[in-house]
Specification:
2 domains; 11 helices; 3-stranded antiparallel sheet; alpha+beta; 487 residues
Length: 487
C-alpha cells in the first residue's frame, strides 16, 4: 500500500467518523423530543476507504399507525367524558343538588304536608314555592342543555378550522419530503415534522396513511374519505348561532363525505370532532328529552279534571306549558316542554293567583272546582295529586330511561342514566389512555433515542477517530523521513 493510499483511507475514515459523530450528537440533543426518530449513519466499505452512504430513520410504520389510532380513540373518549361531566353538573348541579329529582322530592313532601293541614295558608304557599323550584330546575336544565349543544357546535367549528390548518401544514411538509427524496437529500427532519403533524391530525379525526413513491403520502379517514392526496381536501362545517330542543345541527363534511358521530359511553368516536357531534346530536338531546318527559309527567299528574262528572277535558293544573291549558300528547316526547313549563298563574301568588286554588281546584273554571263548599279542611285533590306522583305512567321508550314508571322514579332514573354513562366513559377513557401510553412507549423504545446506546457509540467513534488520527500521523512521519532522505 502506498503512503498516498494510506492517507486517503485515513481521510475517508475521518470524514465518515465525523458524519457519524454529528448524527449521534443530533440523536443525543433530541433525546427528549417525542417527535424525533433516531437516525443511523449507514456506512459501506469501498476502496480506498469507508464512507457514509445514507442517513436512515429508525421508523416503524406499524407501531406508528397503532399509536395514531390509539390517539384518535383517546381524544374522542376524553372529549366525551369531560362533556358528560360538564353536562351532568350543568343540569343537575354538584351532587345532584339542583336536579329535577331533588326538587320533585321537595314538592312531594310539601304537597303531603299541605294535605295534612289544608287550612294552613303558609303550607299552601310552601307547596307553590316547591313547584316554582321544580319549574326552575327543568327550565334551567333545558337552558343548560341548549348551552352545551351550542358550545359543542362552536367547538366543532374551531376544530374544523384547526384541522384545515393542519392539512395545509401537512402539504408543506409532504412537498418538501417529495422534493428532497427526488433530489437525493436527507429528508429526516421533514419526515419528523410530517409525523408530528399526523399526530395532531389524529386528535381531530381518525387517519390512515398510504405511502407512495418518493415518500409521498395519502391520508384518509377510517371510513375512507380522503383528507390529503397531493393537496389537502377541504373539511367543511356550517355552525349555528344557537340551539333549542328542536334544532338539528349541521354535519361535518370531509371531501363531501359526512363525518359520523360517535355512539355509547365507551364511544366509538375517534377524534374530537366525532365526539363533539355525539354530544351535540345524541347525548345532550337525549337529556333534553328526559327533562321534557319529566315535565310532561308533572303536567299530567297535576291536571285538573271535571269534578261535576261531565265530559269537560282534563286541563293543565299546577303545572302548565306553552301548549296549555291543553295537556300534551301522552306517551311521546313534546320537544322543549321542560323549557316552557311554568306554575299556573291562578295558583301562583307571585303572578296574582291564590295557592288555595291548588287545594280546591278551579284554575280552569267552575266545573274543575272540587271544594265547592269552601271547606278549609278539604284535602281530596291534594291527596290525589300526591298519589298521582307515585302512579306508574308511560314514557317514550326512545328516551332510554325506562318506559313505565312513576314521575318520582323516572326523575331519579334519568340521573342514573347520565351517571351510568359517565362511569362508562370514565372507565373507557382510562383504558384508552393506557393504550396510548403503551403504544407510545413501544414506538419510543423502537424508534426513540437510547442514551446508553448513543454514548457507547460515541466511545466507539472516538476510538475510530483516534485510530485514523494515528494513521495520519504515521504517514506524516514517513513522508517527513522520506523528504529528509531526499534532501
Amino acid at each position: 500500500m502506498s503512503l498516498t493510499t494510506a492517507l486517503n483511507i485515513a481521510k475517508q475514515s475521518l470524514l465518515a467518523t465525523s458524519r457519524q459523530t454529528a448524527v449521534v450528537s443530533q440523536n443525543v440533543t433530541n433525546a427528549g423530543n417525542s417527535d424525533y426518530v433516531r437516525r443511523n449513519a449507514v456506512v459501506s466499505s469501498e476502496a480506498p476507504g469507508a464512507r457514509v452512504v445514507v442517513i436512515q430513520r429508525a421508523a416503524n410504520e406499524a407501531l406508528f399507525r397503532a399509536n395514531l389510532s390509539a390517539v384518535s380513540s383517546y381524544e374522542g373518549q376524553g372529549t366525551i367524558r369531560s362533556s358528560i361531566d360538564t353536562l351532568a353538573q350543568a343540569v343537575n348541579g354538584v351532587d345532584n343538588a339542583n336536579s329535577p329529582a331533588k326538587a320533585l322530592g321537595s314538592l312531594y313532601e310539601a304537597i303531603q304536608l299541605y294535605s295534612n293541614n289544608p287550612a294552613n295558608a303558609s303550607l299552601g304557599e310552601s307547596a307553590i314555592e316547591a313547584a316554582r323550584q321544580v319549574v326552575r330546575s327543568l327550565n334551567d336544565g333545558t337552558a343548560a342543555v341548549n348551552a352545551q349543544r351550542t358550545n359543542a357546535d362552536m367547538q366543532i367549528s374551531v376544530a374544523v378550522d384547526e384541522l384545515n390548518g393542519l392539512l395545509k401544514d401537512f402539504e408543506t411538509a409532504n412537498s418538501a419530503i417529495v422534493f428532497g427524496t427526488q433530489t437525493g437529500r436527507d429528508v429526516s427532519d421533514q419526515l419528523d415534522r410530517r409525523d408530528s403533524i399526523l399526530k395532531q391530525i389524529a386528535q381531530y379525526v381518525p387517519v390512515s396513511t398510504i405511502t407512495r413513491e418518493n415518500n409521498d403520502m395519502v391520508l384518509t379517514t377510517a371510513s375512507g374519505a380522503i383528507l390529503f392526496e397531493t393537496s389537502p381536501r377541504t373539511v367543511t362545517f356550517q355552525p349555528k348561532p344557537g340551539y333549542d330542543a328542536t334544532t338539528v345541527g349541521n354535519s361535518v363534511y370531509i371531501d363531501g363525505v359526512p363525518l359520523q358521530a360517535g355512539a355509547g359511553g365507551d364511544t366509538d368516536a375517534a377524534g374530537r370532532i366525532a365526539a363533539h357531534l355525539q354530544l351535540r346530536d345524541t347525548i345532550a338531546p337525549n337529556v333534553q328529552a328526559q327533562l321534557d318527559e319529566v315535565a310532561r309527567g308533572l303536567v299530567m299528574a297535576f291536571a285538573e279534571t271535571d269534578q261535576t262528572g261531565g265530559a269537560a277535558p282534563a286541563l293543565a293544573g299546577l303545572f302548565t306549558w306553552s301548549g296549555g291549558p291543553a295537556l300534551p300528547a301522552g306517551g311521546i316526547i313534546s320537544p322543549g316542554l321542560a323549557g316552557s313549563l311554568s306554575v299556573n298563574a291562578a295558583m301562583d301568588s307571585q303572578q296574582g293567583g291564590n295557592p288555595t286554588v291548588l287545594r280546591d281546584g278551579g284554575a280552569n273554571g267552575a266545573v274543575y272546582v272540587g271544594n265547592t263548599g269552601g271547606n278549609a279542611s278539604y284535602a281530596d285533590l291534594l291527596i290525589q295529586y300526591s298519589a298521582n306522583l307515585d302512579v306508574s305512567t308511560t314514557f317514550d321508550p326512545a328516551v332510554g330511561a325506562g318506559t313505565n314508571a312513576s314521575v318520582m322514579d323516572y326523575s331519579s332514573d334519568i340521573i342514573s342514566w347520565l351517571e351510568n354513562l359517565r362511569q362508562q366513559s370514565t372507565k373507557a377513557e382510562e383504558n384508552k389512555q393506557a393504550l396510548v401510553v403503551r403504544t407510545a412507549e413501544a414506538l419510543s423504545n423502537d424508534t426513540g433515542v437510547n442514551m446508553d446506546e448513543e454514548l457507547s457509540l460515541l466511545l466507539e467513534l472516538e476510538h475510530s477517530y483516534d485510530a485514523s488520527a494515528r494513521l495520519i500521523k504515521a504517514v506524516d512521519e514517513m513522508l517527513a523521513n522520506l523528504i529528509a532522505m531526499v534532501r
